[in-house]
## 1
Amino acid sequence: MTARRQENKGRPIFVSAALLAAVLLHGAWVAAYAAGSERVVSNRLTGLAVEGIDPIAYFADGAPIAGRAEIEATALGVIWRFRSEQNRAVFLAHPDIYAPQFGGYDPVDAARGVIGAGQPRIWLVAGQRLFLFSREDNRDAFVANVNDVLAEARRRWPALKATLADY
């Protein structure tokens, strides 16, 4: 829990009718968006995507670097951590670019027609997109044949995604 959430814990919240209506309308839009977005691999206990690693670090630093608990945001149905406020702002402006493709599931497994959660420490940035892999062998197979693997993974992904449980 971030310090900000801890500070607000236990304080009453007063909501006007107009604000409540705006929140409800926004909630309906978010639900519609979420229904069409990718499900993202996350830790079931913490709710963290990519095990708390700052997704911008893969691009900016070329390495998986842990985000800070006090700098986090919720996007795509999971909690993301960041090393800086700037990284958080960049990610929130373009989660489709910086979030792992296929929701963090292994694209090589997807191309084979199976679901496999990618590991944050087995990764690759290709075509300015982040991919996570379940095994190093899969990353090697991806590098050897990027276009064919991606084409087959994208073809199979909608059916595979439909098998994922809603939590």
Note: The chain has two domains: 39-96, 100-167.
## 2
Amino acid sequence: MTKNTYPDNPVLQAIAGRRSIRQYTADAVRREDALAILEAGRLAPSGKNSQPCRFLPIYAGEPEREELAKLTAHGKIVRNAQFLIAVLLDKTATYDAVKDCQAAGAAMQNMLLAAHSLGLGGLWIGQILAQEAAVLNVLNLSPERFQLMGLLTFGRPDDQSARAHRQPLSTFLLKSI
């Protein structure tokens, strides 16, 4: 699907147009936009409607941002982002490990698409999962209760070259339609 395949369908246009943005301007993310992004995450599907995801928002200037930047190879991106969301599973609300991880992925994708629709850029950082214990410590969250699923960075895009090559649909199909 190319960006103009469905010109009258804003959802398919957002999916086709969204890119992983790694450079942001210094412009702040408005509170209303942050709330809209978080709301999009809340509305994601989950197995048995268990709603196990929890979101910890972090703005530029908060000390957690710098501490998180030190815990990932993508520290420059974290430092440059104007708004971050740590996505976690609340172990008291989970019921199936695979479905709960899928719910977190759906929430993160919803938030990235919401950001794109608001003219913001975002990036899903999974590499930070290797430092889960340290991240939970920085965020002052209990590892007995929470499991880190990822860190999302957001801001106004300052990376106009972010155009990932996507393989054709035929590469993904195990059977022709």
Note: Residues 97-117 form the longest helix (21 residues).
## 3
Amino acid sequence: MKITGKQIVRVAGKWTGEWVRDARGKAVDMCCHYILTAGVLNYCGDSTHALKGQAIPLPNLPPHLED
């Protein structure tokens, strides 16, 4: 899965309605790119966030969703 767009300004987890901008005032690109394999999210090197290059196991499903 690869999701691209522009970085958004967040304050207390909420979007302010503004884009993150570089020194020239241009909106900054973002990318979240991962491959899901055997219950593990493998974030690709072109991701622009803190999980770039990491492998994150998904949590177990709650019992009521297992069947």
Note: Strands lie at 2-6, 8-11, 14-19, 29-37, 40-43, 55-57.
## 4
Amino acid sequence: MGNRRRARELALACLYRADLLERWEGACVEEPLGSWSDDEAVVEFARRLLRGVRDHRGRIDAVVQAHADHWTIPRMNIVDRNIMRMAAYEILFCEDIPKKVSIYEAIELAKRYSSKDAGSFLNGILDRIEGSGSPHG
């Protein structure tokens, strides 16, 4: 498994925790990282994702909501919505990461950590976000 995939897994775990506890402020989101990996490249990329999602969560959720027909953010499975947030952050704000890679990685995370239908659910919404043409939805 590559460093970035491992970082995405760690970031997903932290996002899940923050969402479950409703603790998005400051360092609370990335608090567990240091104890989960000693690979600095993994931790640094995970931190980048976590800070991005935390800092832009309102905008990310608005964009996801605008592209998620018949779904609201709170109604989404907690794992799915946090995979979606992370991938949407990459698509909207990380010009150095190819958008198709972000979508592919989100689908791979969903295959491993969510339901059998989650990959196609995420793919549909993320493809619409990616195809919207606007850098921020």
Note: DSSP finds six helices and no strands in the chain.
